[in-house]
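Researcher: Sequence recovery benchmark, item below. Answer with residues only.
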């Protein structure tokens, strides 16, 4: 199997990590996020890990600052991808929210790379989070879109079949 990087996106609470966990029995997966190094910085500044709208805005703003300064989030992801290329994982899920950052990673990626939007229940799609990262999730032309709008028991076989078809392409 050819190594593949999948940029996965969706608003907070869309179920991205839950869906990824449903694939771990079949695939060897590395799961990384462009916000991970930003969270480490935020903790040094007093962030306690909360997922409030205010905290999400703080993380989004901090990510924007580090992106402008030295492209820290993308460089972090590309370093993680270098490790992925050398390890025994088959799929690297890459969490990126901002359309410009998605495009940048896709263009600089060293593996086959596709983009996937996880679209949650309607009330989360309509929610205004108040930060540029979450509020721009739908402003990208994704290769694939998956509607995660049912219970976990109902969505599991639908997701696994959808994902298997992606992997066949």
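Model:
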């Amino acid at each position: 199997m050819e190594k593949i990087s999948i940029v996965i996106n969706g608003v907070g609470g869309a179920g991205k990590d839950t869906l990824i966990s449903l694939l771990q029995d079949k695939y060897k997966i590395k799961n990384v996020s462009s916000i991970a190094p930003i969270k480490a910085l935020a903790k040094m500044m007093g962030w306690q890990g909360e997922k409030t709208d205010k905290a999400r805005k703080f993380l989004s703003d901090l990510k924007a600052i580090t992106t402008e300064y030295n492209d820290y989030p993308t460089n972090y992801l590309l370093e993680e991808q270098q490790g992925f290329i050398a390890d025994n994982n088959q799929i690297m899920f890459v969490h990126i929210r901002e359309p410009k950052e998605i495009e940048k990673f896709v263009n600089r990626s060293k593996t086959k790379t596709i983009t996937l939007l996880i679209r949650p229940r309607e009330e989360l799609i309509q929610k205004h989070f108040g930060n540029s990262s979450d509020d721009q999730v739908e402003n990208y032309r994704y290769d694939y879109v998956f509607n995660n709008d049912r219970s976990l028991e109902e969505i599991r076989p639908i997701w696994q079949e959808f994902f298997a078809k992606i992997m066949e392409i």
